[in-house]
C-alpha cells in the first residue's frame, strides 16, 4: 500500500509540473502582450513600456520567468494581479471557500441522488426502472447554464424560496444561497452516476454466485451487502471521482449564472481582463484538483480491492 501511495504521489507531482509548464507557456505565448492590460487604450512611450516590462519581468527569457514563477508558487507566492495589484493568493483565496462549499454541496447531492436512484432502478425492474431511466436521460442532456436559468426562474423569481444571485451573509446564509447553484451543478452528474450505479449493480445481480446464494435462501440484505454492493463499488467510485473532479470546472458557468463570488466567476473576469497571473493560478488549481481526485479514487479502490494492493506491490 505504501508503494502504491508513493507511486501515485510521484505521478501527481509529475503531472502538476508538466501542467504548470503548459499553463504558463500557453498564456504568455498567446497573441498580445500582457502589459497592454495595464495601458488599456493609452499609447505609452517606448521607455514607459520598457520600464513596465522590466517590472513585470517580461524582458527575461520565458524559461527564466517560468522558473521564478514556479519557485515563488512553491513558497506560496503566485505573483500579483495585473488588474488590482493584489497578491494572486489573496484574490483566489477570497473566493475559494465559497467555491469549495458549493462543490461540497453538489457532491453530496450527486452521492445521494445518483446512488439512490441507481440503486432503486437496479433493485426495482419494471416501471420504477423505466421512470428512473427517463429521468436520468433528461438530466444528462440539460447543460448547467440551462438548468441555472430554469432554477432561477422557478425557485427564485416565481416562488421566492432562494436568492437569484449572490450569497447571503453567514454560514447558514451561504448554504441557503448555494442550494440552487449546487442543484444546477449536480444535475448532469446525478444522472450519469445513477446510470453507472444501475449498470454496476445489475451486472452483479446476474452473477452465478449471487443467484446461487439467493436460491439457497440467503437473506436479501446480507446478500446485497456482501456480494452485490461491495463488488459493484469500483466503477461507482471511479465515476464519483471523475465527476467530483469535474465540478470545479463546472463552477465557471454556474457561478457566473448565479453571480456567486467564487473562483469560477473570478476566472471568467480574469480571462476577460487578461489578468494572466490569476488565470494561471486558477488553471493550476483546477488541474491539481482533478489529479488529486483521481489519486484519491485509486487509493480508495486499493483499500476496497486487495488485488489492486497486490498489483501496487508488484510494480
UniProtKB/TrEMBL annotation:
InterPro entries given in the database record: BPD_transp_1_N, MetI-like, MetI-like_sf
Q: Does the keyword Cell membrane apply?
A: yes
As for subcellular location, the record says: Cell membrane
The UniProt similarity line reads: Belongs to the binding-protein-dependent transport system permease family.
Question: What is the protein's given name?
Answer: ABC transporter permease
Q: Where are the transmembrane segments?
A: 12-30, 100-123, 130-155, 175-194, 232-258, 278-300
Q: Which domain of life does the UniProt lineage start with?
A: Bacteria
Q: Does the keyword Isomerase apply?
A: no
Instruction: Could you list this entry's UniProt keywords, alphabetically sorted.
Output: Cell membrane, Membrane, Transmembrane, Transmembrane helix, Transport
Domain (ABC transmembrane type-1): give its ranges: 96-297
Tell me how this protein sits in the membrane. Answer: Multi-pass membrane protein
PANTHER family under this entry? DIPEPTIDE TRANSPORT SYSTEM PERMEASE PROTEIN DPPB-RELATED
The cross-references to Pfam families, in alphabetical order and at most eight, read: BPD_transp_1, BPD_transp_1_N
Amino acid at each position: 500500500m505504501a508503494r502504491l501511495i508513493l507511486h501515485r504521489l510521484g505521478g501527481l507531482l509529475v503531472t502538476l509540473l508538466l501542467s504548470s509548464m503548459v499553463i504558463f507557456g500557453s498564456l504568455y505565448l498567446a497573441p498580445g502582450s500582457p502589459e497592454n492590460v495595464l495601458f488599456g487604450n493609452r499609447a505609452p512611450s517606448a521607455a514607459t513600456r520598457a520600464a513596465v516590462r522590466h517590472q513585470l519581468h517580461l524582458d527575461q527569457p520565458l524559461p527564466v520567468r517560468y522558473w521564478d514563477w514556479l519557485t515563488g508558487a512553491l513558497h506560496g507566492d503566485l505573483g500579483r494581479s495585473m488588474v488590482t495589484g493584489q497578491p494572486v493568493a489573496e484574490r483566489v483565496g477570497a473566493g475559494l471557500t465559497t467555491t469549495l462549499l458549493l462543490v461540497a454541496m453538489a457532491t453530496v447531492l450527486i452521492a445521494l441522488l445518483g446512488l439512490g436512484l441507481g440503486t432503486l432502478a437496479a433493485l426495482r425492474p419494471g416501471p420504477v426502472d423505466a421512470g428512473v431511466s427517463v429521468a436520468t436521460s433528461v438530466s444528462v442532456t440539460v447543460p448547467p447554464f440551462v438548468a441555472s436559468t430554469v432554477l432561477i426562474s422557478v425557485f427564485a423569481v416565481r416562488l421566492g424560496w432562494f436568492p437569484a444571485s449572490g450569497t447571503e451573509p453567514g454560514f447558514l446564509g451561504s448554504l441557503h444561497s448555494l442550494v440552487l447553484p449546487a442543484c444546477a451543478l449536480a444535475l448532469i452528474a446525478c444522472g450519469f452516476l445513477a446510470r453507472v450505479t444501475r449498470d454496476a449493480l445489475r451486472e452483479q445481480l446476474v452473477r452465478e454466485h449471487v443467484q446461487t446464494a439467493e436460491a439457497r435462501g440467503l437473506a436479501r440484505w446480507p446478500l446485497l451487502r456482501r456480494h452485490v454492493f461491495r463488488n459493484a463499488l469500483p466503477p461507482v467510485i471511479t465515476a464519483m471521482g471523475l465527476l467530483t473532479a469535474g465540478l470545479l470546472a463546472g463552477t465557471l458557468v454556474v457561478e457566473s449564472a448565479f453571480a456567486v463570488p467564487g473562483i469560477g466567476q473570478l476566472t471568467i473576469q480574469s480571462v476577460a481582463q487578461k489578468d494572466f497571473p490569476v488565470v494561471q493560478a486558477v488553471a493550476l488549481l483546477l488541474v491539481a484538483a482533478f489529479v488529486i481526485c483521481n489519486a484519491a479514487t485509486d487509493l480508495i479502490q486499493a483499500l476496497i480491492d486487495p488485488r489492486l494492493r497486490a498489483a501496487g506491490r508488484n510494480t
